[in-house]
Design a protein that fits this description.
Helix content is about 25%, strand content about 25%. It is built from 13 helices and 26 strands. The longest helix is centred in the middle third of the chain and has 16 residues.
Length: about 550
């Protein structure tokens, strides 16, 4: 009897899995305990084994695709056995061959355009779809920064195909198949959702258009095969408009002057480097979007004499000009907006501020830097002190997971780093166990990687507490927004010299203000206050950080 194979739950936070690789194919004989596939979870890539003996009758998820937990990904049974009734959630398609692919199972819905052939057979097409991969835990779409291969190039497994801009960094994606790059579906500078088709790799002459149609009929992506007819229609239109080409150029320039200019990030960057005003460029992308080729092919056109004269006559009465620039959101900014909005409007936050005397910390830092191989900053001292304080107040080192509170026994401190496009939070793992000099070296390395977009997923995932420092900008005090699912974040102000009174005598001293933002669902006021008291003690008596 045939048995369905479902996506297993491989971690406590896993909601879906990505098939990193299939170790079997349709028709293979497997035994209980054999490794069927490698599954990428939110934590790691793990092997998935078979619990049945039999033959692989059906594989419903292609390599690189994500599916939710408990979704059917394969069927094991006896050769020739009818498994269609087991595919719950599929449409009742007509009887088909045992090796029926995912596209054959789910393509009856669009019956109107293909009434004679409700299912598209792709089993004989020797080509594979390349989809936008999930490159970070918060990524929902990626922008193709640059293609490293072009249509017609031969590629091998492991070759780099493209550079993808995510919400965290710009990363390279590699090919998992040998063959020829047959199709590129997303141009440089354009965004595509995770798991949408961006390219096709296969044998030369393979019918990739049918593969794309089958994928579109499956509901996973819009059919991109209309690109060629669109180009064919554009050719006669361009020929008809050729006599009026010189008259149209100034009109395009004028129409863009007061409207939003649609341009890809790469096109904007190239235009800025070449000193080109985007308002004078006619976009050839979707909806008039300016793309890289428009900048590469741009030729400045001389302004007509008559409008120039009219402008000269009006200029004496002008005292200024209203203008603005609409800046498209990059992936990092979109994620910051989404996650911090979720935190701000869902978590009941409260704030606790405490003033710290930094005189002894300043003296200790000077003494330690005389011996340390790496310069220790005040921020390093705060991170170390926060990590030590968290060992004594584990409730502050907890996470809100909706239906439960997770008390973390390890301490991974996130360090907020401002970069050109937004904010990144690299993680110092097991910060409580590291010496100040080791911690200082790691913060400098991670900070440098963040600013040059060289961080990898392991560098920004897993923080249990975050420190945000704006003291170097002269900010005395501020409040930070919690980075979910954490329950607290510490905002660090600058060190300020001030006058204090002791025993009726005035004296000069140095103080620093810390503000702890707490999620009241996890941390109560007394708990947060006790954490700050411990933190204050560690910074005012810094020798305690060394024992």
């Amino acid at each position: 009897m045939a048995e369905v194979i479902r996506m297993p739950k491989m971690s406590d936070t896993m909601e879906e899995g990505v098939i990193a690789a299939w170790n079997v194919k349709v028709g293979d004989v497997v035994k209980s305990g054999d490794i069927l596939a490698e599954v990428e979870t939110d934590k790691a890539t793990m092997d998935m084994e078979s619990y049945y003996d039999g033959t692989i009758l059906h594989i419903g998820v292609q390599k690189g695709e994500a599916v939710p937990i408990d979704a059917i990904i394969a069927v094991i049974g006896n050769p020739g056995e009818d498994f269609q009734s087991l595919l719950s959630g599929s449409t009742s398609a007509p009887a088909a061959a045992p090796a029926e692919t995912k596209e054959e199972v789910k393509t009856e819905a669009p019956a109107a355009p293909a009434a004679a052939a409700p299912a598209i057979d792709t089993s004989s097409i020797k080509a594979t779809l390349v989809t936008m991969p999930l490159l970070s835990d918060t990524m929902t779409e990626g922008v193709v920064h640059a293609w490293l291969k072009k249509v017609g190039d031969s590629v091998k497994s492991g070759d780099m195909l493209a550079e993808i801009e995510t919400d965290k960094a710009t990363m390279e994606i590699e090919a998992y198949e040998d063959g020829t790059l047959l199709y590129i579906g997303v141009k440089e500078g354009e965004a595509a959702p995770v798991n949408s088709v961006i390219a096709v790799i296969g044998e030369k002459g393979a019918d990739f258009e049918t593969l794309l149609k089958a994928n579109a009929a499956d509901g996973s992506a819009p059919a991109p095969a209309a690109e060629a007819p669109k180009a064919a229609e554009a050719a006669p239109a361009a020929a008809a408009a050729a006599p009026a080409k010189k008259e149209e150029a100034p009109a395009v320039t004028h129409s863009n002057a007061g409207e939003r200019i649609l341009a890809s990030p790469l096109a904007k960057k190239l235009a800025e480097e070449k000193g080109i005003n985007l308002g004078t460029v006619a976009g050839s992308g979707e909806g008039g979007r300016i793309i890289k080729s428009d900048i590469d092919n741009y030729v400045p056109k001389a302004a007509p004499a008559a409008p120039a004269a009219a402008k000269t006559q009006l200029s004496p009465s002008l005292t200024g000009q209203e203008s603005y620039e609409d800046i498209p959101l990059n992936q990092m900014r979109k994620t910051i907006a989404r996650r911090l909005s979720e935190s701000k409007f869902s978590a009941p936050e409260f704030y606790l501020t405490m003033e710290i005397n930094m005189d002894k910390a300043m003296e200790a830092r000077t003494a330690m830097n005389a011996m340390s191989p790496v310069k220790i900053s005040f921020n390093d001292m705060v991170i170390k002190a926060a990590a030590v304080a968290l060992t004594k107040h584990p409730n502050v080192n907890s996470s809100w997971l909706g239906d439960k509170i997770r008390r973390n026994h390890h301490i991974h401190v996130g360090m907020a780093v401002a970069v050109e496009d937004g904010l990144l939070v690299p993680v110092i793992r097991f910060a409580d166990t590291k010496s100040l000099s080791t911690l200082a070296a790691e913060t400098k390395d991670l900070g440098g990687k963040a600013k040059t977009k060289q961080l990898q997923p392991k560098d920004w995932e897993g923080n249990t507490f975050t420190v945000s420092n704006l003291g170097m900008f002269g900010i005395e005090q501020f409040t930070s927004i919690i980075n979910p699912p954490e329950s607290c974040i510490l905002a660090v102000g600058g060190i300020k010299e001030t006058v204090a009174v002791k025993n009726g005598q005035f004296y000069a001293t140095n103080v620093m203000k810390l503000t702890l933002t707490c999620d009241h669902r996890v941390v109560d006021g007394a708990t947060g206050a006790a954490f700050l008291v411990t933190l204050k003690d560690l910074l005012e008596e810094p020798y305690k950080l060394l024992v």
